[in-house]
Amino acid sequence: MKLNAGIITDKLAETKAFYQTVLNFGITFENDFYLLLHTPNQQAELSFLLPNHPSQRPVFQKPFAGEGVYLTIEVGDVDAEYQRIRSLNVPIEIELRDEPWGDRHFAIVDPNGIGIDMVTYANPS
Question: Could you say which of 2.60.260.20, 3.30.720.110, 3.40.50.970, 3.90.1560.10 is the CATH number of the domain covering 70-120?
Answer without folding.
Answer: 3.30.720.110
